Amino acid sequence: MEPAGLAVSVLAIASLFNNAVDCFEYIQIGRNFGQGFQTGLLKLDGARLRLSRWGQSVGLSGELEDEQSLPQAFESVYDTNKAEQMLGQILELFADAEGISAKFKTRGGRAEQDLLIHDIQMDLEPAALSLHNKMRDLSIKRQNQTRLRQKAKWALYEEKHFKRLIEDITSLVSDLIELFPAAQASQKQICKAEVAEMGAKENLPMLGAIVKSQDKLLEETIAEAINQKTPVPNITFSGSHNSGFQLATNTGTISNLRWGGST
Predict the structure, then answer these.
(1) Residue 213 φ then ψ, to 5°
(2) Long-range contacts from 36-39, C-beta under 8 angstroms, 24+ separation
(3) How many CB atoms lie within 10 A of CB 96?
(4) For residue 117, what is the DSSP state?
(5) 54 neighbors 194 (Cβ within 8 angstroms)
(6) Per-residue pLDDT tens for 73-131?
(7) Distance CA 233, CA 249 (A)
(8) Of the ranges 24-38, 176-190, 230-244, which is most confident?
(9) Nearest-CA neighbor of 258 among 233, 240, 237, 239?
């Protein structure tokens, strides 16, 4: 492919990425999800965060106005075409889910309460709302300046379709990550920044549980951060006159520890 043609393809990818991240903004969740609402929403946020992280790592989160601003990650025509295809599939997943939503609403015999939706600001627990807002803000900041398609809010009312949407998006983002292995080191650093952005330590175990089996890199980074924040005692008992009963609780690794007299 000629450089000009490659430039057009990469700009198309930038637009697809921008719109894919934006699509998450318009999903609402039906009240009949019950207790699964909070976990489901945060998993959706996690999928969006992971997609936006990939985009940042390959250079799609800046301004791409001309050939000179093309990210180096897209020098391969094959990789460029595959990425364009995968991002297009993510957009198709949202379109299919929106179609399922429309069919559910028009199906006969629906009670009014079947179409009620959750109010995120009112229905999420405070810690979950904090995580939701932070993941949302991080993802939005990573969008680029390409044009967004006009969209309207819509809702998924059946949990099975919602779970399937998250699983399919997660699978496609995994494929995108594997397609650009050189960007994975950058993603590790971005994960560290994400964890730092989450702030309060009590948020990290909740986030770790949410992204488990969905975002291995973020899960590992969270575990590292929790271990680093746990105090690790460094205790030495030495000499010939130490006796009695020592009681302590340790949650880390103890080194330089000697019990009793000289050895």
Answers:
(1) 65, 0
(2) 36/159, 37/118, 37/123, 38/123, 38/124, 38/125, 38/128, 39/210
(3) 14
(4) B
(5) no
(6) 888 889 999 999 999 999 999 999 999 999 998 887 777 888 899 999 999 999 999 99
(7) 10
(8) 176-190
(9) 237
* SS3 call for 29: strand
Q: How far is CA 64 from CA 71, 73, 173, 221, in A?
A: 9, 13, 21, 30
How many whole angstroms separate alpha carbon 250 and alpha carbon 238? Answer: 20
DSSP label at residue 36: H
Whether the CA torsion 120, 16, 184, 170 is positive or negative: it is: positive
Give 188: exposed, middle or buried? Use CB within 10 Å, 0-12, 13-18, 19+.
Answer: middle
Q: CA–CA separation, 128 vs 3, rounded Å?
A: 46
